[in-house]
């Protein structure tokens, strides 16, 4: 390493070597098999009428036309966006706030809280609604009996607002841990020197958060936003089990429409729908990349 | 003032703990209650009957074994192919590296339901349906990106001089990987295994479509318990058992989570 080059600079200037492809090849082979091939197949199905897989009939863009012309698609899209917006606006600030409080706490408290808050992450997704339905059951559940006793008139089956509340609370219960763990990972990576400098400048708590912690957490938080957005946007099993999209389609999200079609083995239409959803994913990922790539150093580009 | 804020903080943490634990507590309690009329046990009273029923059911025991097989295979596979790939991303730039990283990101966030139909058709054609191996393979679609993403952060935080010294000492690349790199980033491997484990363990959409007639993991065996007269005690006992490996994993990585692991995008 030449003298005078800062460690950070040398870190960013990675040697250019195409033999590195051999190292990524095994991963790429598996990804091709389980990701790219199915994607090619689904693209192919989406242009065909497949009453049986051996008897394809080319229908061109018909299935796509059906989707973009149906009001139901836009209604589901709007509901999914609303759900993601609510979920993010609750879980993100709450997760960051908990991580900030943890950072000032004793080590024992930190590990206890982190262990507790990650517990729901290891619950199989089909059991999360079972646990919650049991919990809010008006006859047997702790929350259900409490709400009945309070006279809240809680009815998650026929009151759309109540179904939404159950889904949002359940999703927060399920995923808050991921946001906290990621935010905490970001905060604890900040060197003590930053805080010492802030203390010398007599910075307020808000200033420390705004100008030190938040910028330093930007990378992990953007990942948390991306993961939470996509997972809530495409919520499937949990929402389906709670009320099967009801009452009166009030919680019919995008994935529930697709799941319905796959269950009926409508190959063509469900393939087209899968492609539409995949294009949404691609747009989100691209937007995310464009929004976060500003930090990528120019030195990464190979010399031309 | 100082003590007041710390009391409030503890109160908040206690509130969060209660929010997480109370729904789970009810599940655990139900698992110890006989929920169907049975000879000799009063309905709704404490009993170990649900856990004894699991022990006596070959189907349920097999499902626990299936789950363990597929999840161990998946974690091994993701670490095995993820480590060299993460090393490549952390240490070199090469043609298409950014495009490849973007591709991984896209597949990580693609909802499994989008890929489930073609995966079902593809795996049925090559005989990988109804077996834990099929699930282990298919869960790589979201776990390989996770593994590469986390491991890349850990490897990048190891100074490059570390590699160069090992190579000067005459280590080959595989020798360097096993004798130097793996021990140096052991916490990273633990954290990666943890995330691969939980995302694979809890996934149900692909696991369901691939195990319609056999090879069912715990999640699908629980689904099969629902019927005309569902034994909720048994369902909850299976759910509690399904939590045990995950809780053990959390316990093993708790200090790394508490220290905050290295992560970059």
Automatic annotation (TrEMBL), chain B:
**Domain ABC transmembrane type-1: where?**
64-253
- Where does it localize? Cell membrane
Determine if ATP-binding is one of this entry's keywords: no
Q: Membrane-spanning residues where?
A: 7-29, 68-89, 101-127, 133-155, 176-202, 232-253
Q: Which Pfam family would be a valid example here?
A: BPD_transp_1
Q: Give the domain of life.
A: Bacteria
Query: Which keywords has UniProt assigned to this entry?
Result: Cell membrane, Membrane, Transmembrane, Transmembrane helix, Transport
Protein's membrane topology: Multi-pass membrane protein
Give the family per the record: Belongs to the binding-protein-dependent transport system permease family.
Protein name per Swiss-Prot or TrEMBL: Carbohydrate ABC transporter permease
Source organism (scientific name): Bradyrhizobium campsiandrae
């Amino acid at each position: 390493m030449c003298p005078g080059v800062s460690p950070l600079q040398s870190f960013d200037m990675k040697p250019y070597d195409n033999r590195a492809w051999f190292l990524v090849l095994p991963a790429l082979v598996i990804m091709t098999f389980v990701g790219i091939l199915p994607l090619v197949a689904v693209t192919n199905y989406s242009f065909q009428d497949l009453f049986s897989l051996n008897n394809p009939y080319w229908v061109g863009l018909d299935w796509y036309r059906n989707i973009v012309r149906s009001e139901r698609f836009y209604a589901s899209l709007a509901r999914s966006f609303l759900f993601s917006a609510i979920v993010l606006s609750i879980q993100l600030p709450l997760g960051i706030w908990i991580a900030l409080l943890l950072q000032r706490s004793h080590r024992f408290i930190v590990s206890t809280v982190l262990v507790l808050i990650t517990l729901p992450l290891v619950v199989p997704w089909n059991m999360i609604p079972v646990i919650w339905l049991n919990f809010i059951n008006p006859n047997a559940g702790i929350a259900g009996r409490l709400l009945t006793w309070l006279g809240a008139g809680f009815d998650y089956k026929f009151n759309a607002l109540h179904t939404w509340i159950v889904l949002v609370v359940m999703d927060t219960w399920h995923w808050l841990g991921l946001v906290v763990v990621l935010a905490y990972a970001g905060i604890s990576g900040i060197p003590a020197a930053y805080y010492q400098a802030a203390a010398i400048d007599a910075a307020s708590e808000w200033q420390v958060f705004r100008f030190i912690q938040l910028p330093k957490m930007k990378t992990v938080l953007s990942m948390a936003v991306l993961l939470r957005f996509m997972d809530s946007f495409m919520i499937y099993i949990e929402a389906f089990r709670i009320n099967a999209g009801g009452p009166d389609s009030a919680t019919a999200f995008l994935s529930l429409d697709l799941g319905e079609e796959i269950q009926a083995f409508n190959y063509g239409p469900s393939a087209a729908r899968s492609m539409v959803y995949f294009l949404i994913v691609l747009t989100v990922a691209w937007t995310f990349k464009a929004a976060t790539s500003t930090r990528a150093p120019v030195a990464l580009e190979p010399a031309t | 003032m100082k003590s007041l804020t710390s009391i409030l903080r503890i109160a908040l943490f206690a509130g969060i703990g209660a929010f997480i634990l109370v729904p789970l507590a009810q599940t655990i309690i139900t698992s110890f209650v006989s929920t169907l009329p049975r000879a000799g046990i009063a309905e709704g009273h404490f009993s170990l009957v649900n856990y004894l029923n699991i022990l006596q059911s070959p189907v349920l025991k097999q499902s626990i074994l299936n789950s363990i097989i597929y999840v161990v295979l998946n974690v091994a596979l993701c670490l095995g192919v993820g480590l060299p790939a993460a090393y490549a991303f952390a240490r070199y730039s090469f043609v298409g590296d950014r495009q490849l990283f973007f591709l991984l990101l896209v597949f990580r966030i693609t909802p499994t339901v989008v890929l489930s139909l073609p995966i079902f058709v593809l795996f049925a054609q090559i005989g990988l349906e109804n077996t834990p191996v099929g699930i282990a393979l298919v869960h790589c679609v979201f776990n390989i990106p996770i593994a590469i993403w986390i491991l890349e952060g850990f490897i990048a935080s190891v100074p490059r001089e570390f590699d160069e010294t090992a190579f000067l000492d005459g280590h080959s690349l595989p020798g360097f990987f096993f004798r130097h790199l793996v021990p140096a980033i052991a916490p990273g491997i633990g954290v990666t295994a943890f995330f691969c484990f939980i995302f694979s363990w809890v996934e149900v959409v692909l696991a369901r479509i691939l195990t319609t007639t056999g090879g069912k993991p715990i999640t699908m065996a629980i689904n099969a318990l629902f019927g005309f007269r569902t034994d909720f005690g048994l369902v909850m006992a299976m759910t509690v058992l399904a939590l045990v490996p995950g809780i053990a994993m959390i316990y093993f990585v708790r200090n790394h989570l508490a220290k905050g692991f290295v992560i970059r995008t």
